[in-house]
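User: I'm putting together a small comparison set for a docking exercise, and I want a reference complex before I start. The sequence is below, and the ligand is zinc ion. Could you produce the 3D structure with the ligand included, as structure tokens?
Assistant: Of course. I'll restate your input first, then give the structure tokens for the complex.
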Amino acid sequence: MSDFVSDTDRDILDTLVEHRVATAVHLSVLLEIPERTIRYRLAQLKAKGYARAVRPPADKGSSPDHWCPTRKADSWSKGERAPHGGDKAAPSTTFVEHSGAITALYVALLKATAGLGLTEWEREAGAAEEFEWRSRPRKIVPDAFIVVGDKKTAYRAFVEVDLGSMSMTRLSQKLSGYAAYYAAQAWADIHPFPPALLLATTSEARAEGAIARFEQRIAQAERHAHSYSYRGRDEWVPEMGACACARYPDEAVGEPVWLSSGGGDGLYLTDLLRPPWERWAEQERTRRQEHERREQWRQSLRADPERCRKEIQECGSSRSFEDLAEALDQRGCLALKLLVQRDRKMDATERAAFAFFSRRLGWSRRGDLTAAHHPPPPSEQERRAVHSLASRYAERQKRYVARLYARGSDSPAIGQAIAHLDGGDFLRHDELARLPGLIAAHRNNLSELQRRRRAYLTWRAQSIVRARRAKRVLARLVFDPQHAERELDLERLWFCKPCGQLAIPTERDLAIPSVPDCSLCNLRAATSLAEALGEGLIRPDENGFWAVCHRPVPAWVLAEAARPLAKSAGLQEEW
Ligand SMILES: [Zn+2]
């Protein structure tokens, strides 16, 4: 490193290595060092074999020296030893001129103000992007990729500099590459929105031609794009701008010299770059608002059990929450399921227990409410809250069923419900929901049972009279009508165990001896009267008929039944 006199030499060389080609004026601006000093230093670096000057032909007058780093400078930059042998051949003037123009644009952007502050600058290799188009790998290699803007904005663009040395065919190929890139929406892999394409060229005619060509290529590419895998995002119309100021970067950056693909003319660079950014910024704003709205909604569901339960019921995710409840013991699980299914306003116990669900909310891919996929195990506190809920529900269900009983609903369904609750269990939502229907069915059945009973008793009395008449006189004297009745009953009456009631034949059944159907469940009775008697399910009543032996009613039912009926339940009342 003894070659270098000062840090200035190093700075100059670093800048040259980075930008490949620069004039003394560029270096002076970039390094904020007087041009005179730069020139002197460059001569020194040239003498030591680190830099070389190339002078491209100029249209008018003479063009300034364009400075390039040598291989020795590149090795120094990478921290490698100086290469053996001489330097490679001098770079072509076309290359030097082109690279110099790009550096000039960089310098112009650095000097620019008015919302064009340069925040990102990538050249060729750094700006290249690979993508796939119609099953083949493709690549764009812009001369530069830039991000410019101010504190609030960040405009993005690919830059192509054309000094007129490129054939129109080559330029068209480049534009086709960009057209495919935009049609494939390949930008979405890297950029939040499609960067604009800027072409700085040397004549108005060339700028207009390039834009026309680009529009044509875009239209072609769009036709191929319909079944493309990147598709499905919002459609973006790519923005292309062209100007004739490739040799006058300050004008390109600061003057209204741009044509645009939308047919615009006399545009500032910012006019070109702003629309895609604005559209994206608007989308972002909407997305953020939507996100916030959703987040508030989620918070409200976490905070408000009542609202959360309503949402669970309405969005149809009850099952996933009922599955969550399986983590608790059977009783707790059933209580939580009842809690999810109920729609009455929650009391404090219910709210406390519902916290178990509130802590396990999840969101489906579509953002709907569902149960968490990996819920934590229930805490001790949660178990206690659910236990209280279970006790509370058992108590409420007992009161409800006892009230129904007290109102005269001694249907088998109520009997079973009482037995169930007396055993320390409680009823499922569907079992409770069925009760009113079963009670109503039983009420209808009772009148049918009464009717059959009256018809049967009439038939039995007539049968006895006929049987007695048929006996001889002596036999009539010892004829025991009660015995005869019992014999008939044993033959004709049956018992339905599931319904806990006598199966009495209908008038039609009486004509032909057969096993009668149960008037409640309509199934053929399966238990004979003799069996039912043997099992103590029925007993003779005081009217010469049979009464069903009911199970003893638990004290809690009787206690409720003894309460005044004013506030007692109808079928509409919930438990
Ligand atoms: Zn039955």
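Residues 429-470 form the longest helix (42 residues). The chain has a mean pLDDT of 88.
User: Thanks, that's exactly what I needed.
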